[in-house]
Every structure is written in C-alpha cells, then in structure tokens.
Amino acid sequence: MSRWLSIADIAEKVQSGELKATAMVEQAFKSIEQCQKYDAIIATIPERAKRRAQELDGRIALGEQTGRLSGVPFIAKDNFLTFGSETTAASNILRGFEAPYQSTVIERLEAEGAICVAKANLDAFAHGGSTENSDFMVTKNPHDASRVPGGSSGGSAAAVMLDMAPFALGTDTGGSIRLPASFTGAVGLKPTYGLVSRSGVVAMASSTDVVGPLARTVEDAALVLDVISGRDLLDGTTVNRDPEPYTNLDRATVSEFKIGIIKEYMGEGVDHDVREQIQSTVEALQKAGADIQELSLPSLDLALAAYYIIVPAEISSNLSRYDGQRYGFSHPDATNLDQSYNWSRSEGFGREAKRRIMIGTYVLSSGYYDAYYKKAQQLRTKLIEEFNKAFKSVDFLVGPIAPMTAFKIGENTNDPLKMYLADAMTVGVSLAGLPAISVPVGLDRNSLPVGMQLIGQQRTDRKLFSLAKEIERLVK
After folding, report:
1. Which of 176, 199, 299, 430 is catalytic?
2. Do the domain assignments include residue 445?
3. CA distances from 407 to 35, 82, 225 (A)
4. Of 49, 87, 123, 310, which cross-links 151 as Cys (Cβ 3.0–4.6 Å)?
5. At CA 88, angle to CA 87 and CA 90, rounded to 5?
6. pLDDT value at position 252?
7. In terms of pTM, does the model score above 0.90?
8. Are 413 and 419 within 8 A, CB to CB?
9. Residue 176 catalytic?
C-alpha cells in the first residue's frame, strides 16, 4: 500500500494531467483488495467508479475544469444512498436494497470530481460503538486486528487508516464519527447539527444525526466539509454554512485561544494513559500561550441517561418504516399482514436494533412519556444552557473522546450497558447540536491511538479546525 497525497494535491495533479483519475481509482481498489482481512468494506463499486474516472480523464484532456476533488477516491458508510451498489446500513432487513437516488452529500462530492469506490461497514443502522453489531462482519482495528475500530463508523475510519482512500464519510448521532476516529488515529469531525444535509442518509435519530468526514489530516477533513456543507431544500433542518471556506483556517495564534478542560471528562473511570495524553497536549497548548482553565458542566454526568431515552424513542419511530411491505426484507412464508409485519421485523432486525426499538417504544408509551421522555428533554435543555454558559468564558472545550482506547473484539458484546458507557463523553455534545472534532494526540502503552475531543459553539466549525490544526502541529 502507498500513502495518499493530500486531497488538494491529488485533485491538483489530476486536473493538471500529472496523475490520472483512473490510476487513483485503481490504487484504491488495490488497497481495498490487500486489506480484506480487516473487514472494513461491505461492497465495492468498481464499474461505476472506473467509468466516472475515465470520463473525468477525458474531460481533463479536453481542457475542462472538473472540480476541487478531481479524481479523489472516497468511501461512504453504507447508510448513504449511492448508485452502483446496494445500501444496507449493515442490516439484513435492507439486504438487496438498491437506492433509487443518491444522497445529497454524495451528489455534492461527485459534482466536484470525487469518486465513490466502496461502501464501509458499520454497526447495523449505526446502533453501536464498536462495529460489532453489523449483521455482516466485524471490522478490525488497523493498529491491532484483535480490537474494535470503534463505531458506528468503524468501517469508514479503518478504511482511511488502511489507506483504502484519502477520506471516508461517516455519520455521528452520539459519537459515531469521533469514537472510531479516536480508536484508529484518524481525524473525525462531527459538524454543527444541520450544517450538512441528511437527505438520502438512512435515519437513526433525526434530532442528533449528522454527516461528517473521516480523514488523515485536519486540512483534508476541512476540504471535504467545504464541499458537502450548506443548505439543502431536501432537508429542512439544514442551516447556512460559514461564508468563508472551511479551508481558510483562522491565522490566530495559540495565545489567542481560551480553552476549557471539562472537569467531568477527566475524573474517575478514565484510563491513566488516556488522561496522560490529554493532559500532555493541554500542557503543550498552555506552553504555546493558550489560556487554559477548568470548567464544570454538572449535567454532563446525566447526559448518557438522557441520550439513551431520547435516541431510542426516535429510533423506534424511524425504524417503523421497515415493515416488510414497501422495500427491504419481506418474510416469504407470511400468509397475512400481521404475520408479515412480525416475521419480517423479527428476522430482519438484529438484537441491538430490537433492543433500541423496545426501549424507545416503552419510553414513549402512555404513562411513561412524562416519567422518562419529557424529563430527558428537560435535561437536554439544561445541558444546552450549561454549554452556552461555558462558552461565555472560553472559545473551546476539550477532553477525551472516550475513557478508554480500543477494546478487544467480544469484550463488551454481552454487556450492553458497558458498551453504552463508551459513549459517555460524546453524547452530551450531540444532544446540544455542537460541532466537535477528534484529533489524534498520542498512543497508550499498547501503541493504541488516543483522540482528543475539541468542542466549539454552534457554527464555529471553521474555528474548530484552526485549533485542531494547531494541535496537529504541536503533537507531531
């Protein structure tokens, strides 16, 4: 395998004719073939990818401009609707489903010359933090094949770090971009809620789902966000993007940054190596002139409980569409409608999907709505208020992505509560709709990556990239 050039360099060299889009696509497929044992990829898209590469090379030979991502291969998590392959969300209930249209994000990338070469594995319907809940395969961590890559975008993160493509798309509902980025050593951005269209992306929880990039560098992630962000008439929750390109990173010096360390994220339960790497990075920032202070957000300790009420409630609603009638798996032996509903969903959904549907249906049911769902939403409001208060005194908040590094495959699969605790440091940000990025800051004693979480106010994604870039420079 050969390491990719930066995304901007690939596009520039393809546009100039120094590199060929067809060669870039061949390199991606070769890398995917060499790394099959990691089970990061559900499906490849060879015919369409090669055809698009040939078309690009032909247009460039005629002197046409083909976009900021000309000839750059990428991989999409398999919950993005794409042409040329099935879209399964790694669930048996969608096995065989071919999308009638592409997601807005895929269309925007292709309009700038990017080429989708494959679909990445994930926890089925993005329900999980380890990519062990896929109905098809368990993705392995590129640093240690006996460990998980994180989830639910584990296939996307592993693919990037295995050099299958320069970048991949993921989704983040409660940490599903940031956690695998941390576990694999990638850069992973969860943008401000609504900054990137969710049209054509299989829904998990509509009030926290976001789309974002996974890449090797901050600059690559910024370029991808610059292409995919902005309003979309097909998604009414989208918001206006920054008028400046996200690649125009603020030239602010570190001494201009006011950074708050989240007290609740640095206490008991955090591995010694994780805490040490975060503290070391904070000290480097302080030495470079940053204003560092410790801040407390008391409601963060309850964020996980609120998240696992609100999100399953939305999952219960969103997954009701998979009924065996319109698309996806339909049980062949059912003789009436009730049987078809029951048997199709019983066989089509995996254990984790069923678990979340049952929790969500329960908390929304008569007599329990006020006791659980309403209280969780009230806590969400309180959490947003605490974040807003914190941002009156600092520009950014920082802490770990997770209390641990990548754990062993199978270590937590029989303990859903233990698995959910891996999300403890990411779900609060999701409930508040804030942007956050995972930047690799070091390794633990087992040579496993540690990611640092940088959190900003809504719509400060570009400023967040500026801090991330400084950290990237400091820890090299």
Report:
1. 176
2. no
3. 21, 32, 30
4. 123
5. 135
6. 66
7. yes
8. yes
9. yes
pLDDT digits (tens, 9 = 90+) for 193-234: 999 999 999 999 999 999 999 999 999 999 999 999 999 999
Catalytic residue among 91, 152, 340, 438: 152
Number of structural domains (the chain) is 1
- Is-contact 188 438, C-beta < 8 A? yes
Neighbours of 393 (CB within 10 A): 11
In a domain, 315, yes or no: no
Residue in this structure with the two tokens 């380890």, named with its chain if needed: 130
Instruction: Divide the 476 residues of the chain into consecutive groups of 10 and give the mean pLDDT of each group.
Output: 89 98 98 98 98 98 98 98 98 96 98 99 98 98 98 98 98 98 98 98 98 98 98 98 92 86 95 98 97 97 97 97 94 97 97 97 94 97 98 98 97 89 96 98 98 98 96 92
- Here the CATH number for the domain that contains residue 32 is 3.90.1300.10
| Whole-angstrom distance, CA of residue 249 vs CA of residue 247 | 6
Q: Are 446 and 155 in contact (CB under 8 A)?
A: no
27 falls within a domain? yes
Residue bearing tokens 């004719």: 17
383 within 8 A of 362, measured Cβ to Cβ: no
Q: DSSP string spanning 346-387?
A: HHHS-HHHHHHHHHHHHHHSTTTIIIIIIHHHHHHHHHHHHH
Residues 6+ apart with CB under 8 A from 404: 271, 274, 422
Catalytic choice (20, 31, 70, 77): 77
Question: What's the token pair of residue 410?
Answer: 């199978």
